[in-house]
Amino acid sequence: MRAEHGPVRETGKHEADRSRTLVIPVETINRELDAKLHLALRAVMRGWKVILGGRANINHFIPQLPPSIYISKGLRVGNKHILRFMEGFGHVPVALDEESLIRQSDEALLMMLDDETFNRPRLLFAWGQSNADVWRRFKGYSGTPILEIGNPRMDLLRPELAAYFTHQVQSIRERFGDFVLVSTNFSMVNHFIPEHVRFATATDADAERADALRDGLKAHKKLIFEAFIAAIPDMARAVAPMTLVIRPHPSENPKTWEAAAVDLPNVKVIHEGPIGPWLMAARGLVQNGCTSAVEAGVVGTPALAFRPHVSDQFEVELSNRVSRDCRSLPELIVALKSLPTKGPLPEAQLAYLRTHIASVDGAFSCDRLLDALDNHADRLIAPPPRGGLAMAATRLGHFRRYPLRDTIKGLRKMGSAKSYRAHKFPGLPEDAVTSRIERLRAVRPELPFVTVTRLADGIYAITTGAPGTRE
After folding, report:
1. How much is the average pLDDT of 151-175?
2. Does 308 sit behind a cis peptide bond, omega within 30 degrees of 0 on the bond before it?
């Protein structure tokens, strides 16, 4: 496959392909890459040309990418500028929100939305009915179609695609034997960047109320976090001789957990690959307010919700409802010693899960998304070309954005910005893309043969191609 080692070529002449080019950014490799490659292959099967790569890389090269439909990973106020620049350069944004499934507070979520950002995407892709309902309560909602499609991440956990992870599951079991997984979700009090708290609200949000929600949530998270840290030795003894594997959230500082595991020989702190195969390989899961509980429910792994401090404001009902409730450390220890066998959720829990994730069964989320693009093609017409001065101003604003943003957010200290981004997206070599595509095709032979072309660092064009072709 031919590599283009310079920047992406200028492609402003591609007006005819505008509506059939799909840009799919990946922010966190371990969380998103496999699922978005599956989406890319299904898109190619329907006649799309796909550009996939690291989110920061793609956003940096916006001016040089062909006009496209851009699948934004979020709708919150922090996406305001990039979505504005996307439109300025002739792209059409739609939004596949990654953050609206697990909500500690609907009130806080709504404060993180602003009219401009929320109404810029032409289509809004919700996880399910619950997510769609909270979006419709946003005071600035102006009627953009909200489509309940689930999320491509869940497709790979379903029985039809679970074999994609077979080799990884076997490898994990060979390394660790029987083990219990602890999935953490404490970036608000244990962020990779010291003292960084991610809680950006819209400028018109009630500042006093926003501060109260942020401080209340942070205090609640701190109590749970400290309880988890203190419980590690007891959990390790309870599962012995099995291993206790701690998987820190990708935004967390793993060193905190490594310190908690010192002198505990059956405790390992590891964040490798997507969580799916780890859940498939595990005997059970311990979590609090984490997406992993939902993912465990989809793959049939028993989940425990360790809830030593219960809040009347900040509980995640979804995670709790698909888990066994453990309100104290003794209750957790008893549950760890009596884990049930793996198996599907009871029908009542499964029915509840369907109200939150539309694609638990039935059509894949990928197909629902692509159907929506076809069914709403009239909303995806690109904006008219802009004049030279307007385009020059857009380019200047875009290239000034990155250093200004890092300065405002205080992420430049100690090289935090680059190290954090590298932690979440350490790079995307071509063989990492092609090997995953081969595995996906082995599991789902109807997926097309494709040509993968490197456009720039961490950015690839994925297009239809005959077996074995190279471009």
Report:
1. 97
2. no
Report residue 225 CA to chain centroid gap. 22
Helices (H) and strands (E) in the chain, counts: 19, 14
The answer to whether 370 and 359 have CB atoms below 8 angstroms apart is: no
How far is the C-alpha of 132 from the C-alpha of 148, rounded, in Å?
7
- Written as one letter, the residue type at 442 is A
Q: What pLDDT was estimated at residue 392?
A: 61
Report d(CA 305, CA 326) in Å as an integer: 6
Cα 100 from Cα 72, distance rounded (Å): 13
d(CA 230, CA 239): 16
Cα 457 to chain centroid distance, Å, stands at 21
Please state, in angstroms and rounded to a whole number, the distance separating the CA atoms of residues 235 and 256. Answer: 17
Q: Tell me the DSSP string of 204-240.
A: TS-HHHHHHHHHHHHHHHHHHHHHHHHHHHHHHHHHT
List domains and CATH numbers for the chain: 15-151+360-464 (3.40.50), 162-354 (3.40.50.2000)
Average pLDDT, the chain: 89
For 313-352, b/e burial (b = at least 16 CB within 10 A) is ebbbebbbbbbbebeebebbbebbeebeeeeebeeeeeeb
Q: What's the length of the chain?
A: 471
pTM here? Answer: 0.90
